[in-house]
Amino acid sequence: MNYLRGTYKILEEEWQKSARSIGLTQAEQHVLWIVHLEKEATITKIATIGLWDVSTVMQVITRLKQKGLITLIKKSSDRRVSYAVLTDKGQEKHEESKQFSYKLYEYLEDFREDSNENKKFVEDLLKFHRELNRHFHGSEFIEWTEQTAKAMKKGS
Question: Nearest-CA neighbor of 107 among 2, 6, 38?
Answer without folding.
Answer: 6
